[in-house]
Structure formats: C-alpha cells, structure tokens
Automatic annotation (TrEMBL):
Keywords annotated in UniProt: Receptor, Signal
Originating species: Pigmentiphaga kullae
Name of the protein: Tripartite-type tricarboxylate transporter receptor subunit TctC
Keyword Signal (UniProt): yes
PANTHER family attached to this UniProt entry: BLR1237 PROTEIN, TRICARBOXYLATE-BINDING PROTEIN
Recorded family membership: Belongs to the UPF0065 (bug) family.
Species lineage: Bacteria, Pseudomonadati, Pseudomonadota, Betaproteobacteria, Burkholderiales
Length: 322
C-alpha cells in the first residue's frame, strides 16, 4: 500500500511538473498588449516602443503598444489592473503610477497601486530638472529664489497638475518660503519656456537636452536626490539648501495582480537582458535615461516608498489634478 502511495505521489508530482513546464513554454500564446497611459508622444511612449520591439523579437509574439491617456495616467493603469492576469496585458509607466491616485478625487480612484499590480522591473531613471529662460538672468536656484523673495512675479510650467514636476515646484515653494505660480501645460513645456510664456519650468532632462546645449534654456537644479551623470555640474535642489526636496523620475513594467510568478520571472529576465544591450543603452541616452534593471522586488519597494513619501507631501500641500 505504501509503495502504491509513493508511486502515485511520484506520478502526481511528475504530472504537476510537466504541467508547469508546459504552462511556462506556452507563454506568450498570443500578442501582448503593452499599455502606455499617455498620448503617443514623449519619452514614455518612445521607450515603450523600443522595449516592445525588443520583447517581440525575444518572445516570438507581437508586442503592441496601446495608448490609453487621460486622468493623470489613471485610465490606462486601471485598464491593466482589471485585465486578465496572464501576462498578455502589461503596463509601462513613469513614476506617476505611484502618485497619480493620490492627486485624484476619491470618487475617481478605481485601483490600488500598491496591491493591484505585479511589478516586473524598473527600467530606468530620468533626471528631473528646473530650467529657466535665459532672459530671466538666473544662473542658479538661489537667483530664482532671491528674485521671488524680492517680490518678482514668477511662474513655473509643468506637464500638468499632480505631476512629479508640480510636486517638486510646490515643495520648493514651501521649503523656500516663496510663492512661484504653477502653470500647467498639456504638451511641450520646453517650448513654453523657450518662447518666454513662462520663465521657469520643471521638465525631464531628455526633453530639453538639445536646448541646454544651444543655450536656449539654463539648468538651475536637479530635483533628484543625487546629481545626474548627464549633468554632473548641476547641483541638486537638496545641495542648494533645501535637503528635504527630492523628486526623481523613473519608468517600469507592471502586470495585473495575480500574474503567475513564472511569467513575471520570464519577463524580468528578458527585460534585464534588453537593458544591457548596447543599442538600447545608446538609445536611452537620447532620453537622458540610465538603465536600472534588477528584480521585481526593487520596483515594488520603489513604488511603496514613493507612494508613502510623496503621498505625505501631496497631502500636506493639497496638490490635486484636474
């Protein structure tokens, strides 16, 4: 009897192993939809299409980018959170995924960023910077702060209310005791600064790199916790006298909660290898993005840390999206 039970148990384990192996081999069984919660312009969309092409070649299935913009990125994120957890619907998102739910009205919240996603990998970091129109005469952050304290009417542009850029600007206002006015733009903040429509702006470095080189904008400070390797001469806001002000920018891949571990592991492995490809590293430089990679746990911890730390600031400053 014991022999029979052992044989039966061994057979059951073998069948389970075979099923698991078969399940792993069958993924992906059809096209993968990669959701971007923003319009088909800008760094996030361009990076998504880069990764989609590389993943498609490796997984032998189409990886199709689907843009689902609106509501500070929450529409696209919600779409993925409600998708079947089989690895065929993924989300590629900037760090707004961690904070967008915090700036929305309570009735607009339809998912839990901490519990409704399976993090896959952090792909990169992209420095956020405060820049000025050269006509302002500002060369440093201290110049802008001194002018604001002296009564000069100033404003700063961002991609929208509730964005990391908006958070950084209002946070600096409080830390420095100034009141620089926020002006949200839906597209191309750099053009607004260069055109003189707004004297200051918080932007990702990739969107203004060419204008910095041409002298059309001046970099005053990096909002990230550390200096950027792309702008090593530009100090951080923290270094400039406001150590508590630090808002970075990053991108990552997510799947719906409940996606099988072997699917997450497979995608993580492929994406880590993609991030080490020389042509990918070179392309990311055009966005002033540094590849990161690592295990899913790194991204999970990052989302939780940003949600907690920036959530406190959002609450204290009363920052809200439209």
């Amino acid at each position: 009897m014991n022999v029979h039970r052992r044989q039966f148990g061994a057979a059951a384990l073998a069948m389970a192993a075979a099923w698991a192996a078969g399940a792993q081999e069958s993924y992906p069984s059809r096209a993968i939809t990669l959701v971007v919660a923003y319009a088909p312009t800008g760094d996030t969309d361009a990076m998504a299409r880069l990764y989609a092409a590389k993943l498609s070649a490796r997984l032998k299935q189409p990886v199709v980018v689907l843009n689902r913009p609106g509501a500070a990125g929450t529409i696209g994120s919600r779409h993925v959170s409600q998708a079947a957890p089989d690895g065929h619907t993924l989300l590629f998102a900037p760090n707004t995924v961690a904070t967008a739910p915090l700036v929305m009205k309570p009735e607009a919240l339809t998912y839990d960023v901490l519990n409704d996603f399976a993090p896959i990998v952090q792909t990169s970091i992209c420095p956020l910077i405060l820049v000025a129109n050269p006509a302002t005469g500002f060369k440093t952050l201290a110049d802008a702060v001194d002018a604001a304290r002296g009564g000069r009417q100033l404003s700063f542009g961002t991609p929208g209310p509730g964005s990391p850029m908006h958070i950084a600007g209002e946070w600096l206002n409080r830390a420095a005791g100034i009141g620089i006015q926020h002006v949200p733009y839906r597209a191309n903040v750099a053009a607004q600064i260069i055109g003189g429509h707004v004297p200051l702006g918080y932007v990702t470095l990739g969107t203004v790199a060419q204008y910095l080189q041409a002298g059309k904008v001046t970099a005053l400070a990096v909002t990230d916790p550390a200096r950027s390797s792309f702008l090593p001469q530009v100090p951080t806001i923290a270094e400039s006298g406001y150590p508590e002000v630090a808002v970075g920018a990053w991108h990552g891949f997510f799947a719906p909660r409940g996606t099988p571990d072997h699917v997450v592991a497979l995608l993580n492995r492929h994406l880590n290898e993609i991030l080490r490809m020389p042509d990918v590293i070179e392309t990311l430089k055009h966005f002033a993005a540094e590849p990161v990679g690592g295990p899913p746990s790194r991204l999970k911890e990052l989302v939780a840390a940003d949600h907690r730390r920036l959530g406190r600031i959002i609450g204290e400053l009363g920052i809200r999206a439209d």
